[in-house]
Amino acid sequence: MAFITANWNPLGDAFYRKTELYEMCWNIRDELKDSLVATAPYGGPIALLREPHRRSPSSRPQLEIYSASGVAIASFPWKSGPVVHLGWSVSDELLCVQEDGTVLIYDVFGSFKRHFSMGQEVVQSQVLEAKVFHSPYGTGIAIVTGSSRFTFATNIEDLKLRRLPEVPGLQGKPSSWVVLTQDRQTKVLLSIGPELYVLDNTSCIAVCPPGLSQAGSIVHMSVSFSYKYLAVFTDTGHLWTGSSNLQEKLSEFKTNQTAAPKQMVWCRRPKSQQPSVVLMWERLLLVVGVCNDTIQFPIEEQSVLVGELDGARIISSTHQELLQEVPLVCQDIFKIASMAPGALLLEAHREYEKSSQKADEYLREIKEQNVLGDAVRQCVEAAGHEYDPDTQKALMRAASFGKCFLTDFSPSHFVMTCRELRVLNAVRDSSVGMPLTHTQFKQITLQVLIDRLVYRQFYPLAIEICRYLKIPDYQGVSRVLKHWASCKVQQKDLSDEAIARVVCHKVGDSPGVSYSHIAAKAYECGRTELAIKLLDFEARSGEQVPLLLKMKRSQLALSKAVESGDTDLVYTVVTYLKNEMNRGDFFMTLRNQPVALSLYRQFCKLQEQDTLKDLYNQDDDHQELANFHIRSSYREQRLEGRLSRLQSAVDEYNKAKNDFAAKATEEEMRLLRFQRKMDDEKGAGLLGLSLQATMEALMSLGLHKQAEQLYKDFRVPDKRYWWLKLKSMAEKEEWEELEKFSKSKKSPIGYLAFVEVCMKNNNRYEAKKYVCKVTPEQKVKAHLAVGDLEGAADAAIERRSESEMGAVLSRCSASDRLLIDKLNRARVAATKK
Amino acid sequence: MAAHLSYGRVNLNILREAARKELREFLDKCAGSKAIVWDEYLTGPFGLIAQYSLLKEHEVEKMFTLKSGRLPSADVKNIIFFVRPRLELMDIIADNIISEGKAHSSRDYHILFVPRRSMLCERWLKEQGVLASFTNIDEYILDLIPYDGDLLSMEYESAFRECYLENDQTSLYHTAKGLMTLQALYGTIPQIFGKGDCARHVANMMLRMKREFAGTQNQILPVFDTLLLLDRNVDLLTPLATQLTYEGLIDEIYGITNGYVKLPPEKFAQKKQGEASKDLPTEPKKLQLNSAEELYAEIRDKNFNAVGAALSKKAKIISAAFEERHNAKTVGEIKQFVSQLPHMQAARSSLANHTSIAELIKDITTSEAFFDNLTVEQEFMTGVDTDKVNTYIEDCIAQKDPLIKILRLVCMQSVCNNGFKQKVLDFYKREILQTYGYEHMLTLNNLEKAGFLKTQTGSRNNYPTIRKTLKLWMEDANEQNPNDISYVYSGYAPLSIRLTQVLARPGWRSIEEVLKMLPGPHFEERQPLPSGLHKKRQQGENRTTLVFFLGGVTYAEIAALRFLSQMEDSGMEYVIATTKLINGTTWIKSLMDRPESQMP
Fold it and tell me: Which of B89, B113, B120, B446 to mutate to test the interface with A (most CBs of A within 10 A)?
């Protein structure tokens, strides 16, 4: 503990430290020298392609993938074309850029995922150099070809190649170049000798770093992690640093080294006091601060630099170290003779553990300045920045100790840091090998960390972390299980049965795990039977359907769609089946699914009338067939067509044993023929009228005989016919005819109707003629209808009907005094009885 | 905004607000000025959720009705189609887009499917080659629309026809989804009862959907204690009868659509003093009817015969209130009077409106034709001579009364007689075909298929048993101060509501026999609640039941349920939901098929 500052080196007014992360687990010697190396930031995996240029087929180069701690993950001989560049995507996929512009993508376990090309013209001109970069859109690739043209894509997931304009005067590749992402725009910054150009989608502009005094050739460039800063190295040994938009200069430094460095990276951290650029040569590591102060480290072995958000990692064949500016809070606490509150608290706690009363003195001092809260906060924060668990513990204990003397201090920061440190220590462990700093962890978020553990198939650890940090199942455990299951179904050495069983056992009913998703994965790997087994566990039948269709299990898809109750889904499957099957099979399938069948009928009613007919035909549904013919008969433009349709309907109704409908339709045909005949002969304009309306029209045309004919032919009930005649004659004021008609036989509709119809046609005189014929029950009503109150009163009194007397009374006006008295008396008499 | 939705036992405004929020979010997704192209069918239901002002706030500048051909010109950035997922509408949209061509290349097109998007429709659009023209394709989940403080409707007009005639259960899927949304907002409903095939289907889907969400527990304290799902075909009789409540009669005579009624204007002419009312308004008077109007809330569910008294009582109160001004002496008193004026004036105009409506209705209800019709209906309901051809119907046919009236009566007779003898049925059918035209063959066929018309098949008529057991006919219905639900039909107690009433007390076990006579299964399901959500009922606190009528409900039935809610000793409050508010006429109309002749 006392030596915590032993590895601190001053740089300007700040300190830099180099912390050992791992003793590397791998077993390599000089391979770093003659291999293509790809290292991923945020403690990601490392890929090595040994001797990439050895082309004889007998000895293929070997591609090896290691965790950041050097644990071998995969190794296989490279069988494709010569590789120019290796790089890692944001989701831990390895991108191998070949000379011919093909980019092959492998997952972290070395299994091939997919490939794409950087453009047809590249095949000819070949890729000279390539860079993989991370942009706000995802992972990007930029290449420069033998014809000195640049092409890039900003997101390999949504590949859109952009070929940049020609660079005037460029032969071969530029002496150095970098990719910049500024204001959501991606550009290339390149140098040709001493000149510097910015190349974007539309133009190539010469630029000059402000204040670059020495005009040697630019041989190396580097942009910072955030793309905000640029470092430029010239062959005169000058290092220029400034903003990447070339508006501002930070510093210029002469290194006394004329050879271009092997690697040059920025070493900064958020809220950096003293950012620096790290340059690496064969035997020297030089840290140049913008204050022009430097630190030199000798290098004993081949090493690789990895720029990070808050520092730089140095990987050699035996060790891995993190070089970073010591965070301010750590400086405050650990700087020798520091009087910062955190430093005092740490000291106080140390004394307390020794049971020394000095603890109290220190505490008193902090409390007198009223900074105990700050002290605790400092210790917690510093613990986050420390890599060594013992130091973390010491700081956290001190914080916890300090907290005891505070009354209302929110513990959440303390608790959260404890938990996060525990997670970080777990993933930093050499067996996992993710040397994330707390700052990096906060940047990538827990979600991404879990994703990365999942990519690496550390499922138990990921689940452990989710549970420990109490992440809602949806985002946590379920997501991990989903990945696990998707991976499980790809295991070729297990039987379908076994996999289905183990998946079901582990996943169970976890919310948010979609079995259809897992099944889709299984299907992708060619395990259809397994996919079907897994789909059975899916509770949402709607989710099962699309995959079942894809797997050509359409019958099963149909029954699942029906089960879901979602008619839209049923329709979807039905239209799918219709295209897929021959008609006979399609109809048979529908027959077994009544719900689907009726939906399809609905569809046909709107869109495919003829199919509808075929459907009914197949089912021998004669009733519906007949109805179908009836419906279509109305669409016929000509009478003959209509009649033949109706005849088909009659036939079908007969087959359906629907005698009534068959007869009625025959009647309809007879009527139509009759109407046509009358229209032709007399121009009566009857076609399309109902039977009743036809008779009415005939009567009003005076064609009584023909009306009579219909009455007989169509066996029209007497009642209706009488009504018809009565009304027709009254309307035409054929009163004599009417009277004759009334006497032709006993009226089936009674005689009140005659009275009312006459009155309706304003003939009281005629109306009165029929009053006497009315049955006794209707007498009162008839008298009232013709306005004969006295007659009504007499009839009512005769019938001794109280309610009828009341009805008459309600019609009497004040002038009918006598009548009213008479009725009232009769009423009283009636009630007495 | 919609205060009347929050008065009830269950605050339905929550549902409305959720719907409005979703609408706003969608509109904001389409940045810039907008024009909406409406599926005409949707405008009414949408009016219950959002007025034009809300749309306007979100840059909706124009509105059109969906029809074929070129879109009307509009200088807007976005064209949004609000449509139901139906293929025939997709054809129109495709036609619109194709006719538009390249004219407005900078324009964005969007589709909002109501109530949910459809793979079928999207495929259809794709086949027409226009799917790629749409920037956003989204769904607006609007299943249950808050209609009043205790009433939800899906406004799904064809639901009954689709379910019982065409075996298309789309509406039931929407119902189940709607009930899931409702439960998400108001908590899981612990008990589900149901009667009928559709009810069973809906309940099955709900339980299945709940399983699909397994793992995510609903943590809302349940508002509803019970859900009762009722198939309309369990009670075909009730909607056929003429409703006799105030609101029911307004609907029977003038038709209420989406909460609005259009009335003949003559009675509403503004009589300004000193001005002869020369020019009568010709536009129908459009009135909104809901419980936000105090007077209407008071009288809507009364038997019409009790409305007159209520109106005159109200008139006295209002004029007394206006008289108060003479007693106002001090400045303070006058100020207080003035502050009440707007409320009083609103009450006065509301009174004037309803007095006019009541007069209009009274003209009809006192007519002989209305009386005769009602007499026959009541004869049927009491089982008088239902097995013979009815003379009144015969006469009506001979007089060529409107066909729907005839169909209502014939269907009613058939239902009350559990079907006709073959001879009687054939007679009616022949009369109808000969008088109104053979094209009604299809309609008659539909009515037979849906069970309205049938022949007696051996089994005896069980309607009298049902009537007696459930006390469907009450001889001494009190219209003024009702003590039983039978007041809504002046004697007939709606079968559907009796079932609801018996379920609450003493329970369906007491009427097993009758339930077996009615079509479809009856069932009970329980949805377990997570511990901690079990209600601790206060002493005397009422239980709440959601009654869902699959295939429609009438205003009279709603009135009967409200009556039950208000009964002091019932211990149960009802919230009503349905696929559509219906009456006998709209209902029968939805089952009609009338091919138009193409012959010249």
Answer: B120
